[in-house]
Amino acid sequence: MSDSSTPLVTPATDLLGHQLEHEQVVFANDPASGLRAIIAIHSTALGPALGGTRFYPYASTQAALADVLALSRGMSYKAAVTGLDLGGGKAVIIGDPTTQKTEALLRAYGRFVESLGGRYYTACDVGTYSEDMDLVARECSYVTGRTEEHGGAGDSSVLTAYGVFCGLRAAAEATWSDADPDAVLAGRLVGVAGVGKVGRHLVRHLIDAGAEVVVTDVSAAAVERVRQEYPGVRVVASTEALIAEPLDVYAPCALGGALDDDVVARLSARIVCGAANNQLAHPGVEKLVEDRGIVYAPDYVVNAGGLVQVADELEGFSFERAKIRAGRIYDTTRAILERAQRDGVPTATAADRIAEQRMLEIGRLRGIYLG
């Protein structure tokens, strides 16, 4: 008989050290079209899983798997904390979208999504666009984020950026409580890392709010587009150079892992609030952020505007209604900052507690038989 203090089964963990808690992980391969994809459904406790499709040239299948597991988990928490009756899922297509994306590949992917029978709804993400979702939808009923011409919500980056800005305004008001709420970002130096889909729209909101903006991006074309649209924006060569700036706000809007020990140690910003998913490079970083007196607006809270937008499409899309719902990210962010202060925990922990409480309480109702 084993010692009662020793578990009979050691919980499995994913490549990031999280206990494996996903309901379903599907590997999809179609050699004829070149499709190599992974679909991860983290939770359907609140409803069908919804999350975008990331098309990216991962270095390995292991790297792709680690990303899709983390991203799908984040989608569960994002939907829960935002008040949506949706679960969390995500998909990744392994490859270079600039050279490997074809109609055949996207339609093959659509058939794999269709095979899940509505447990997972897909949408756009890094490397995929509304036009791509139109192609996926030719083989699949479970697609959001389609073009407006096909009855969809269109580019979800618009409301993603708006939601980030709403969350930033809430964090700024809490940080600089003596400032005029209507001009709390005026004159503040905001560094935006990544000015592609979402970052470019965020820059517009920041400029309109009177902030000074400095940006960086690995894409020269993305930087040039922002420079043309907003001549007053300053450009630096790298994320390292951006972090070295005397920032008031740091807005990571590219890929995940933006906040590691080194970045947190060097960052001068009072606030971190950006659109990138999974910004905390490893468990424990949130405590380092708190110890440095930096207000971290949890990524899956503030970047939920895109999810709100594509979720609204399931009801028959109304941009005005979706924007009102995305604007509530301001209230959600305030509630999380207040919960963190009240409980004496990092903001990331406070957000997790709120999301987990809703998944538990509302998810429990699924066990009540309706006949």
UniProtKB/TrEMBL annotation:
> What highest taxon heads this organism's lineage?
Bacteria
| UniProt entry keywords in alphabetical sequence | NAD, Nucleotide-binding, Oxidoreductase
According to the record, the segments passing through the membrane are: none
Q: What is this protein called?
A: Glu/Leu/Phe/Val dehydrogenase
Q: Cross-referenced InterPro entries, in alphabetical order?
A: Aminoacid_DH-like_N_sf (IPR046346), Glu/Leu/Phe/Val/Trp_DH (IPR006095), Glu/Leu/Phe/Val/Trp_DH_C (IPR006096), Glu/Leu/Phe/Val/Trp_DH_dimer (IPR006097), Glu/Leu/Phe/Val_DH_AS (IPR033524), Glu/Phe/Leu/Val/Trp_DH_bac/arc (IPR016211), NAD(P)-bd_dom_sf (IPR036291)
This chain's source organism reads: Nocardioides humilatus
Q: Which family, according to UniProt? A: Belongs to the Glu/Leu/Phe/Val dehydrogenases family.
CDD domains, alphabetized: NAD_bind_Leu_Phe_Val_DH (cd01075)
Q: Which PANTHER family match?
A: LEUCINE DEHYDROGENASE, VALINE DEHYDROGENASE
Catalytic residues (positions): K90
SUPFAM superfamilies, alphabetized = Aminoacid dehydrogenase-like, N-terminal domain, NAD(P)-binding Rossmann-fold domains
PROSITE patterns according to UniProt:
GLFV_DEHYDROGENASE (PS00074)
Which region is the signal sequence? none
Q: Which residues does the annotation say bind NAD(+)?
A: G194, V195, G196, K197, V198, G199
Classification lineage:
Bacteria, Bacillati, Actinomycetota, Actinomycetes, Propionibacteriales
SMART domains this protein is in?
ELFV_dehydrog
Q: Which molecular function GO terms apply here?
A: nucleotide binding; oxidoreductase activity, acting on the CH-NH2 group of donors, NAD or NADP as acceptor
Q: Name one GO biological process term.
A: amino acid metabolic process
Tell me the ranges covered by the Glutamate/phenylalanine/leucine/valine/L-tryptophan dehydrogenase C-terminal domain, including all copies: 154-367
